[in-house]
Amino acid sequence: MQKQQQESIQPLTKGEKTHLRLRAIAASEFALRGFHNTKVSDIVLASGLSQPTFYNYFESKEAAYEQLVGEFRRRLEALTKTLLIETSMSQQDLLESVGASFLKFLDFLAEDADLTQIGFFQPPGCTATKAGLASWIARNIAKEQAIGLFRADISSTQIGKCFVGMIDQMARDPMTPQERAAVARGCALLLCDGLWLRA
User: Which terminus of the chain faces fewer neighbouring Cβ atoms within 10 Å, N or C?
Assistant: First the structure.
């Protein structure tokens, strides 16, 4: 069965490889220069391809950027949907689940530094991405509040924004997988358990 699956995977065509190359170079140039300072000629020069080749795959610089950032947002939204907690659990299990959610976001943002830079940290794309993420998280939180997992006297919108703020600040520095796991646990403790010292 596995051999059949391997045989059914078609190698990429030359055009698909060129498209992937242009996307990667465009992401790199946008991350390095910012959207407004990047020109099609920068992408073309860095890729070693011609300007007509670029326009075979993208209508414009804006179209290339929107394709990259749009895909980044779709993947982030899909990830957020998978993190919805649908059943009651103990406080300790809930803390572990929130920590795992933070870690999945941090791991996602660490996957591709260039895409994360343009999709999550740099304008113009970052504002809409973070607003979207806050609303997707808030949607999950509202459902989790409805089944009694989280306190309902704080709005899900506020919690979603806090969650995004923590992710935004923690994901800015490069970290090893072990450091990301420790940071994710710390974020979960802070969000779920607060700053109070136990008496």
Answer: C
